[in-house]
Amino acid sequence: MGNAALRDIAVIEDIPFEEIEGVVAVDAHNWLYRYLTTTVKWTDSGKYTTADGTEVANLLGIVQGLPKFFEHDITPVMVFDGGPSDLKDDEIESRREQRRSYEDQLETAREEGDAVAIAQLESRTQRLTPTIQETSRELLELLDVPVVEAPAEGEAQAAHMVKRGDADYVGSEDYDALLFGSPLTLRQLTSKGDPELMDLEATLDHHGLTLEQLIDAAILIGTDFNEGVSGIGPKTAISAITEHGDLWSVLEARGDHIEYGDRVRQLFRDPDVTDEYEFDAAIDPDLEAARTYVTDEWGVDAGEVERGFERIEESVTQTGLDRWT
DNA sequence: CTGCTAAA
DNA sequence: TTTAGCAGG
């Protein structure tokens, strides 16, 4: 059911870091989670746990992950998911309200058995605690890394920003960036080697499909939001859509049914996104404040972040990302 | 999550 | 060609 099948459909190529330039709209949830899991796996938990037991491995991950961008002259823009996380850190009261309203939404969706709504809500919030959401935003702000708040899926908002020309690539591990219409998507920005570039236009050309048809094919195979039809994989989906034209015709011809198919289709075709954002691609981090925040305020082991901060310092002053140079 | 194998 | 199950990171 997973959407790894999309990998077989997508046109993907390795691209050297040197060839990437400009702004990458990063699916922040995705990116943070990636670093969270590796940090937790390889680092002694005492290095990122406060006295009261709060774990802030995300701070370590951010400090270690950002140099990748800066050293290659790439400006990351972190796009956060909407829902419970789209809260500014002023009013605790409104934060509580928002969190509660989210819980309510999820609760209601569960009661109604609305699988799409459940999947949608869960995909946005999965695994990132409120503390992680908040401290990540605060550290990014100190480092002058732009943050954009998505109304719903960060992935969709990031794709929207690339479509509008405000960013050059979406940065995400998820293949559904393609379904949200991301023209160019970078994967494996967090790994050692070169990233992968997923090209929407090349993908559509290769299969002779429209984006709408690609979405329909993906729904047949199964996405994060729906089950898909058993027995249909990437090959069958593409040929069926090519033969019959669209999702409904395929389902009719096969006598199959997909629950909430229209909702999922709508979710990808016309996602909830906003034009209400702005950011400055020139980055001028306050490294002293960031160091203090991470080590003094949250008690992260200084040795663990030292190298990361050094790399940020060196790359920002040397590459001209700094607006003052 | 990615990769590989066996079985339908 | 698809799926399920298991390996390994």
UniProtKB/TrEMBL annotation:
UniProtKB keywords: DNA damage, DNA repair, DNA replication, Endonuclease, Exonuclease, Hydrolase, Magnesium, Metal-binding, Nuclease
SUPFAM superfamilies according to UniProt: 5' to 3' exonuclease, C-terminal subdomain (SSF47807), PIN domain-like (SSF88723)
Cofactor note: Binds 2 magnesium ions per subunit. They probably participate in the reaction catalyzed by the enzyme. May bind an additional third magnesium ion after substrate binding.
Residue stretches making up the XPG N-terminal domain: 1-102
Keyword set includes Transmembrane: no
UniProt cross-references to InterPro entries, sorted A to Z: 5-3_exonuclease, 5-3_exonuclease_C_sf, Flap_endonuc, Flap_endonuc_arc, HhH2, PIN-like_dom_sf, XPG-I_dom, XPG/Rad2
UniProt record similarity statement: Belongs to the XPG/RAD2 endonuclease family. FEN1 subfamily.
Protein name according to UniProt: Flap endonuclease 1
Source organism of this protein record: Natrinema salsiterrestre
